[in-house]
Specification:
The complex is a heterodimer of chains A (251) and B (222). Chain A is an all-alpha fold and 251 residues long. Chain A contains seven helices and no strands. The longest helix of chain A is centred in the N-terminal third of the chain and has 33 residues. In chain B, helix 6 crosses helix 9, helix 7 runs antiparallel to helix 8 and helix 7 runs parallel beside helix 9. The chains are: A mainly alpha (251), B mainly alpha (222).
Chain lengths: 251, 222
């Protein structure tokens, strides 16, 4: 009996593995296209900022990286919720595959922020609410990765990590607002991002770069989830067939 | 419901009283860390007064941290925890009792000794009262959030370091409002707002954290 298209079919690693493999090239290609378009628009077309000069162009990396760092954490928490509620194997693998990319994005956002801050604010680092909460987000990513790495049993690692993600996602707004109030009460350096109306080309460049980062994150997460699957399912027949098939191709 | 909580508190307190060295060493850790700061940064009263709330609170966070791994580890090792999980009562209530017991032996002594250390930092009487009160109502939140971390890292290698990696970022709001309450009192703004938020954090974490820890314990016991 031929059954209808069923989304749940892809919850099984054996069917998701080839599916993910087929999707990766598309996401890579789309990411490159968006990236080239975004860089062209951001670096060559967008006008020089009258206040910040050429240095402002780092926002084309900085802003998409910050967005992705927050978004990936939410996606991971979403996978964690699905995994804990429905006890699916794939969810934990997806969350673990996303974590290094999320941490990378948080780190990139801090790094580019520091590089931008030195010429613009005259300081590599200020205890601004947004910088501080991004730093805490990086800590949360590192905590998640450390916890899942410390647990040998894959199922316990998935579930414990998932619970930590859910606790983290409940805490993120509390942390964000507490840091914000802390910052305003301490009368921190009056940082002003010069909220001038942004040129349309700048906005488009930023959106294109965000799409590029988004597609990159999906592609790299799928690649990572494929290796996680092979590692965890190494005792199963489909992995053996997959690996033997590859060895056969090379001969 | 309250009978179970009370029974767990009584049991944990009895166990803690048989091993008083643990309580005392965490307390002395707190005292020593706080006393190191003036030695590191100099004895100027003006500077110390400004640093006191932050130093005391960070030291309190670290001192609470020290006793967290033991919250479930001993019971896990001798099998008591599995029996508690099998018992007909919800595991969340048992954990609530353990959190309260943990606070009684780790948070409460800190609040009692804090004013003495505050005097060393030349804090005014008002600030000392607010500091004590803030530590008194803030530390239950630390025990509650810490229970989640303790349950998640139970029985893992390098559990202690891992625990601080997981829990310290989540402690940040308590630190901010706890130290902020004293700061606001010193600067004359009044710390009531901070204290209310601190109490809110405590009640929220006492309400939710035991159930999250119970879920984590069940994952670990599977």
């Amino acid at each position: 009996m031929k059954d209808r298209f069923n989304l749940y079919r892809f919850a099984s690693p054996a069917t998701f593995y080839p599916f993910a493999g087929a999707l990766i090239p598309y996401f890579v290609a789309v990411s490159i296209v968006f990236g080239l378009a975004g860089l062209w628009l951001g670096m060559l077309v967008a006008p020089t900022d009258f206040q910040q000069g050429e240095g402002y162009r780092i926002i084309f990396i900085h802003v998409p990286a910050s967005w992705m760092s927050m978004f990936i954490y939410l996606v991971m928490a979403g996978w964690a919720a699905i995994g804990l509620a429905f006890n699916t194997r794939l969810s934990g693998m997806m969350a673990q595959a996303l974590a290094p990319t999320g941490a990378l994005m948080a780190f990139l956002s801090l790094l580019t922020g520091a590089l931008w801050g030195k010429p613009m604010w005259g300081a590599w680092w200020v205890w601004d609410a947004r910088l501080t909460s991004e730093l805490i987000l990086l800590f949360l990513y590192i905590g998640y990765m450390a916890l899942t790495a410390a647990i040998d049993d894959a199922r316990r690692a998935d579930k414990a990590g998932g619970l930590l993600l859910l606790v983290g996602v409940v805490n993120i707004p509390i942390i964000y607002f507490s840091v914000k109030w802390w910052n305003t009460l301490h009368q921190g350096s009056s940082v002003n991002l010069a909220k001038s109306s942004m040129a349309t080309t700048m906005l488009w460049g930023m959106l294109l770069m965000a799409m590029c980062f988004w597609m990159y994150s999906i592609a790299i997460a799928l690649m990572r989830v494929r290796t996680i699957m092979l590692e965890r399912e190494r005792h199963t027949d489909w992995v053996k067939a997959e690996l033997l098939g590859k060895a056969g191709d090379e001969k | 419901m309250f009978r179970i909580i009370a029974a767990v508190i009584g049991r944990d307190l009895k166990l803690a009283m048989r091993r008083q060295a643990d309580i005392v060493s965490a307390l002395f850790f707190f005292i020593i860390v706080v006393s190191l700061f003036p030695l590191g940064i100099g004895p100027e009263p003006e500077l110390l007064r400004k640093l006191a709330p932050g130093v005391l609170w960070v030291a309190a966070l670290l001192a609470t941290m020290l006793s967290l791994p033991r919250m479930f580890a001993d019971d896990h090792r001798d099998g008591t925890l599995e029996q508690l999980a099998l018992a007909p009562h919800p595991l969340g209530l048992v954990v609530t009792g353990k959190v309260i017991a943990h606070w009684l032996v780790s948070g409460l002594p800190l609040a009692l000794i804090a004013p003495v250390l505050g005097i060393q930092f030349d804090l005014s009487t008002d600030a000392l009262i607010v500091l004590t009160f803030a530590i008194l109502i803030g530390t239950p939140a630390l025990s509650g959030i810490g229970a989640i971390g303790a349950a998640l890292t139970m029985g893992l290698r390098g559990g202690g370091v891992l625990l601080s990696l997981l829990v310290l970022p989540l402690y940040i709001p308590v630190l901010i409002f706890g130290a902020g309450a004293v700061d606001a009192t010193v600067s004359g703004l009044g710390g009531e707002g901070h204290l209310s938020l601190l109490a809110a954090l405590t009640f929220a974490s006492l309400g939710f954290a035991p159930w999250a820890s119970a879920a984590a314990l069940k994952i670990a016991l599977e």
